[in-house]
Amino acid sequence: MSQEFDVVVIGGGPGGYIAAIRAAQLGKSVACIEKWKNPQGEMKLGGTCLNVGCIPSKALLASSEEYEKVQHHLADHGINVSGVALDLAKLQARKDGIVSKMTKGIEFLFRKNKITWLKGQGGFVSKSDAGYQIQVSGEGEAQTVTGRSVIIATGSKARHLPNLPVDNRIVSDNEGALAFDSVPQKLAVIGAGVIGLELGSVWRRLGADVTVLEALPTFLGAVDTSVAKEAQKQLTKQGLKIHVGAKIGEVSASDAGVSIQYTDKDGQAQTLQADRLIVSVGRVPNTDGLGLENIGLAPNERGFIDVDASCRTTLPNLYAIGDVVRGPMLAHKAEDEGVLVAEIIDGQKPHIDYNCIPWVIYTSPEIAWVGQTEQQLKEAGRETKAGQFPFMANGRALGIGSSDGFVKVIADAKTDEILGVHIVGPNASDLIAEAVVAMEFKAASEDIGRICHPHPSLSEVMREAALAVDKRALNM
């Protein structure tokens, strides 16, 4: 007879492990199925985000920022440094150490909350009155477990280009691009999205000549236009070569490097030669191999599992969260959905406002936003007013030597309710949290403007932008 659990979670990434922890906190018997193996063949929790995504990329971004700071910015502080040398192996080891610490932390949390980690690939076998039968295979003898409620949290994988094999050596996706053993002299990146810009920034700072090719006609089309324009200006100034409207043709790779044929925005044929190529053209949901057909469920035409606002599938007591369902492919979105579903299973009535989920791009300057852009609101016919304030007028930003960019607050013209906040500048990933809180509580721009902010701090720029909505910024 198979083991039975109140909740079985398939996938141990940010959505899955958080769902498992919350369900266990609520007194449920919980199992989490995870098959991830690191390059050493060790089974690890944390999914793509912790192992080859959010965490290692931020570690590399931080290290590369320090390297660039020593080379180009410390002299501004009167600190002269010579003989700077890059130890890439040590830099990579630091990143791997952070990943290991985080994944071991999740294992500790599983033990603390009495969650059973089932190591291997999970696939549905059948469903019955007792729940869903799931086979776990890949580590030792296959076993079948039953979950009275099941949460699918299998995440996503990098989309690859047709007829271009990814070897994660010459041609890499996000996984290979985090583990280069040397700094390429010339690096090409296809895709100017979050991953392409972040990893392109890492290797540019470490010495690579980086060219980014983007198929769309505009840079960061989903971002507020004014923020995208400023971000492109700053990234170009730093040395990233960004080409929008590039239609990719034949791409050929060999041990000697890669050759990319493309047509530029003016319709001219171009060839880009590089030592290495990062392919960053989006992600696709991991729904294959789940045995969904055995329980009468099928992904939609785009490969996602259809769910309602509460992440329920069309089958009873079966939920799906994170990158396998609609909405942004963001770790914190998956985490919130994991908590939501665990609490629904417990009989609670939680809610997620998807308009209040923040986005961040960890370039330098950072880019962060929540809510709607000015162009979206204009298309919707919404009457708005906006305020903008630059970091260059902020004492703290000047003191730390990061004064590029601005904060922009958009509010309803009549009610003053905040509809969107957009930041390009230092610590944008932290500053955006204030805007998220404000929007969750339906705050007006005046509310932020009347709250005392510490001086000197970067947060004052948020307050000044909110005051600027009604043309009453104090320091401009």
TrEMBL record:
<keyword id="KW-0963">Cytoplasm</keyword>
<feature type="domain" description="FAD/NAD(P)-binding">
    <location>
        <begin position="5"/>
        <end position="338"/>
    </location>
</feature>
<dbReference type="InterPro" id="IPR023753">
    <property type="entry name" value="FAD/NAD-binding_dom"/>
</dbReference>
<feature type="domain" description="Pyridine nucleotide-disulphide oxidoreductase dimerisation">
    <location>
        <begin position="357"/>
        <end position="466"/>
    </location>
</feature>
<dbReference type="InterPro" id="IPR036188">
    <property type="entry name" value="FAD/NAD-bd_sf"/>
</dbReference>
<dbReference type="InterPro" id="IPR006258">
    <property type="entry name" value="Lipoamide_DH"/>
</dbReference>
<dbReference type="InterPro" id="IPR004099">
    <property type="entry name" value="Pyr_nucl-diS_OxRdtase_dimer"/>
</dbReference>
<keyword id="KW-0520">NAD</keyword>
<comment type="similarity">
    <text>Belongs to the class-I pyridine nucleotide-disulfide oxidoreductase family.</text>
</comment>
<keyword id="KW-1015">Disulfide bond</keyword>
<keyword id="KW-0274">FAD</keyword>
<keyword id="KW-0285">Flavoprotein</keyword>
<dbReference type="InterPro" id="IPR012999">
    <property type="entry name" value="Pyr_OxRdtase_I_AS"/>
</dbReference>
<protein>
    <recommendedName>
        <fullName>Dihydrolipoyl dehydrogenase</fullName>
        <ecNumber>1.8.1.4</ecNumber>
    </recommendedName>
</protein>
<dbReference type="InterPro" id="IPR016156">
    <property type="entry name" value="FAD/NAD-linked_Rdtase_dimer_sf"/>
</dbReference>
<dbReference type="Pfam" id="PF02852">
    <property type="entry name" value="Pyr_redox_dim"/>
</dbReference>
<dbReference type="InterPro" id="IPR001100">
    <property type="entry name" value="Pyr_nuc-diS_OxRdtase"/>
</dbReference>
<dbReference type="InterPro" id="IPR050151">
    <property type="entry name" value="Class-I_Pyr_Nuc-Dis_Oxidored"/>
</dbReference>
<dbReference type="GO" id="GO:0004148">
    <property type="term" value="F:dihydrolipoyl dehydrogenase (NADH) activity"/>
</dbReference>
<dbReference type="Pfam" id="PF07992">
    <property type="entry name" value="Pyr_redox_2"/>
</dbReference>
<keyword id="KW-0560">Oxidoreductase</keyword>
<keyword id="KW-0676">Redox-active center</keyword>
